[in-house]
Amino acid sequence: MASTYKLKNSKRYRNNWGQLVRSMMGTAVEGPGQGMVRFRIEIAPDGKLANVKELWSTSENASKLAWQAIKSLPPLPPTPTGQPLIFERTISFQPYETGWPPSYTLDCLPDPPAFKNPFAWDGKSPQEQVKHQAPKRAPVDAAQEKCVTDSTADTIEQEEGEMKRQTEIYLWGR
Known about the structure:
By secondary structure, this protein is α+β, with helices and mostly antiparallel strands. It folds into two domains: about 1-100, Fusion Protein Consisting Of Minor Coat Protein, Glycine Rich Linker, Tola, And A His Tag, Chain: A, Domain 2, CATH 3.30.1150; about 145-174. The protein has helices at about 10-25, 60-70, 140-145, 155-170, and strands at about 35-45, 50-55, 85-95.
């Protein structure tokens, strides 16, 4: 399912990678062995791990288990876009559920313009007064307005109903 997701940021692929690593780490027990680890991952277009770098960790045990899981990952499917995929992911090794599936509601809309700090200076180039201009957004056409391709909820009430349904089915919190 992850390799079929064709939208711009491969969110489903990235989420499934994190879930796979976490599931291979085993059961977390409350205590000093629990923690979180953040990685920067680069996946080649053919699905092979090109580079994995640990950015930080709150537990040596969680870090060790995450590295063992990453080294024993099964072959991954090719990336959905056919391009290298570079992303950061935090793996939470906690005894309680901490991750929710991402919402894909606005994935097909174009990214908003990046913010450029008018007061930032690199220390080398001549300082110039930058005039602040409101970012111009690309016009949204009618096709992109209703571009939701997954069955995600449109409102908070629908999200809340979905969470309640899952809680009742899986008996969470009991």
